[in-house]
Amino acid sequence: MADNQWMYSGFFRRNQVTTEWVEKTDVFLKEIFRSPMRMVPECPCAKCKRRIRRDKSEMTKHLRTHGFMPNFNMPINFAQRDRGREEVIRQRIAGYEDDGVRDMLDDVFAAQPTPPSNSANEPEEPEETAKAFLDILASSKKPLYEGAKLSVLDAISQLMAVKAEYDCSRGCFEAFLGVWANSLPEGHELPKTMYATKKIMKALSLDYEKIHVCPKNCLLFRHEYADDNYCRKCGSSRYIEVVDEHGQKRQLKIPVKVLRYLDFIKILQRLFITEDSSKMMKWHKEGKRYNPKKIVHPSEGEAWKSFDIEYPEEAVEAGNVRITITGDGFNPYGMSSNPYSCWPVFVIPLNHPPRAIMQRKTMFLSLIILGPEYPGKNLSVFMQPLVDDLHHSWYFPKLTYDRHLQKNFLMKVWLQYCMHDFLDYALFCGWCTSGKMPCPVCMQALIFIWLKKGGKYVAFDLHRQFLPPNHPDREDKKNFTKGKVVHEVNEIPTFSGADVLAQLKALNPAGEGKGKGKGKGEDEGEGEGKGKGKGKKCFERYGETHNWTHITPFTQLPYFKDLKLPYNIDVMHTEKNAAESLFRTILNILDKTKDNVNARVDQHNICDRPRLHMQPPTGSRKSWFKPDVDFVLKKDHKMEAFKWLKHVVKFTDGYASNISKGVNLSTSRVTGLKSHDYHVWIERIMPVMVRGYLPERV
After folding, report:
1. CA angle at residue 517 from 515 to 523, to 5 degrees?
2. Is residue 438 part of a domain?
3. Which of 30, 41, 140, 198 has the fewest C-beta atoms under 10 angstroms from its C-beta?
4. Residue from 491, 504, 490 nearest 546 by CA
């Protein structure tokens, strides 16, 4: 145990203590009251001697009055807290070889700033944009006033954060600046106006570009369309039109629709300006792997390695950045308000360590696509600025300053893959993920079957062709399609960039009014049929041999053909959907379970499972009867499971939300579960919840 004599040498008599005693006692109190405890800690003063439990305020008074008890074992090693960060981290990781903690701490340690080595290569001057940023950052860090610990930048950053949080007006903000300025010493550097404050922040911020959009999402008014006032495709007005006093329409200077684009290349350059972030950006090549037999980072996957083989020169430079693009729509006004679809698109650099890739601070907003309409396949129009920058970066790398190596290098940025849920797959890829051919990988090789009673397409009994040749399910004639034995052996196909381009090249565009449209048609009951009225442009034989709806701009990238996995489905959404269906079915949630009457009727027509068939009225039973199944909890077991979730299940703080708040015993429902809650349920709660209630084979 380190020398803690300060507890006694720093205490003279009641309320007469040294500065060191006050500071270290304050740290001690904060540490023992840091996390919520079931019991209040024991007071270590000379009077109580850990016999009585007291709250923080009472314990503080007792320690200042009586001092610490003799021979008190201080739980905090203050000598270690004063050591260098390198020694502290190295000591803390001892004994954590196999639980992943060592990996995490070593990643943090590897990113700490290190002094430049005395090599033959002298440090280079930062390139112009980096030098300007560093100069402004240095000047903004001057103290608020002489002797102040708070810098000008920190002060106005905190003020702007408060203004944004509480939605203060400009007048209120400037009045607050005046009041605070009067309380500061003379010669302070606090700005007096909102304009002066924004001027300091603007020098460190990144601008965004406002791009006018056709009201019908046909095109962006940029490049050759920059000077147009009307859309060349549909004739819609670029600006809001009003009727003047003569009854004539005239355009205002207010655009109807605006796309906001943030240059992500400049954001990625900023990641190399600090030493710790610069080292993090090269982890994919220089970071240490502790589990070589497991894939813990995208760089260990087949798609990453395949790209490195195709482009060895780009793979050599550790500073080159590979990104993933993701996006989804939401209603910013809440689900109860009028329909509105806003689509933010994010860029995520994949160079970071595994534990840093999906952090909020490493996900960068690049596009804000405003509604109110759902963009549909016109999402490709909005993605064009982002794709243009990717295309330009491949041929014209940006000169970037690496603060860690203290040298400039040419940074290339390229797309590794897109990441989205299955519904957004249709927009990013261009393959419609509904209907009888929703799978973009298997395509026409996997034709879904139509459930007459359920009114939808399903992939039931289409998986057996991919099973091993000697798998027993191939010979099953009862639990799958009745009387059907599958001898066909197929491999799961690939869906690389080259495959996508080959498919698109073979398509023939269809004219206006041709093809199959959505809406009520001749085969209304089947959900497709020929649409009435004006048809939508697509490709010939759409819905028959393919489901391609449009060509996305990602196919314009020069390296797209060499991407082995251009489109990637987000595991979180897939797991959430599967877990939600299981949860509602196992607990037999009314109107939500998949084991409903329609499903029983459809399985009667498809499978040979007489025990599950709907039973007609017989004798005293005057209505149809749905037999019980092994994978659904009985009514009394279901109530026991709900009570267990309500009163017994508890998790540590931060592990999961409070599921018990959403349990309603009177209605037998659970509400308010989010994606992470379903992850916890399917991984941790479900095996315990159904144990003893369902058969082992289930």
Report:
1. 100
2. no
3. 30
4. 504
d(CA 368, CA 211): 11
The b-or-e profile of 321-352 (16+ CB within 10 A means b, else e) is bbbbbbbbbeeeeeeeeeebbebbbbbbbbbb
pLDDT (tens digit per residue) in 204-263: 777 889 999 999 999 999 999 999 999 999 999 999 999 888 888 888 999 999 999 999
Residues 171 and 237 in one domain: no
Cβ count near 562 (within 10 Å): 17
The amino acid present at 334, given as its one-letter code, is G
Say how many domains are in the chain: 5
Question: What is the C-alpha to C-alpha distance for residues 482 and 164, in angstroms, rounded to an integer?
Answer: 63
44-82 pLDDT per residue, tens: 998 888 888 888 888 888 888 888 898 888 877 776 555
> Is 355:287 a contact under the CB 8 Å cutoff?
no
Are residue 577 and residue 678 in the same domain, yes or no?
Answer: yes
Cβ neighbours of residue 537 under 8 Å, at least 6 residues apart? Answer: 509, 510, 511, 512, 515
Residue 39 φ/ψ, nearest 5 degrees: -125, 145
Q: Is the dihedral of CA 142, 146, 147, 153 positive or negative?
A: negative
User: Which helix (H) or strand (E) covers residue 366, if one does?
Assistant: strand 364-369
**Phi, psi (degrees; rounded to nearest 5) at 494:** -100, 165
Q: Which two tokens stand for residue 13?
A: 């008599």
Say yes or no: 198 and 218 in one domain: no
* Residue from 97, 99, 83, 78 nearest 31 by CA: 78
Domain region containing 162: 143-202
Residue with tokens 């962006």: 220
Q: Which two tokens stand for residue 77?
A: 């090693």
Tell me if 310 sits within 8 A of 132, measured CB to CB: no
pLDDT tens digits, residue range 497-527? 999 999 999 998 886 544 444 433 333 333 3
Compute the Cα dihedral for 420, 423, 424, 426 and give only its sign. positive
User: Strand pairing of 567-569 and 413-420?
Assistant: parallel
Identify the H or E element spanning 367. Answer: strand 364-369
Scan for tokens 């949630």, then name that residue: 589
- Say whether both 198 and 216 belong to one domain: no
- DSSP state letters, 104-145: HHHHHHHTS--PPP--SSPPPPPPHHHHHHHHHHHHHTSBSS
- Whether 88 is covered by a domain: the verdict is no
Other CB atoms within a 10 A radius of the CB of residue 149 amount to 7
| C-alpha of 647 from chain center | 32
- N-terminal to C-terminal alpha carbon distance within the chain: 55
H/E stretch holding 664: strand 663-664
The whole-angstrom separation of Cα 514 and Cα 511 is 6
Taking the C-alpha atoms of residue 401 and residue 130, their distance in angstroms, rounded to an integer, is 6
Q: How far is residue 31 CA from its own chain's centroid?
A: 32
What is the four-CA torsion angle of 7, 11, 14, 15, rounded to 10 degrees?
A: -90
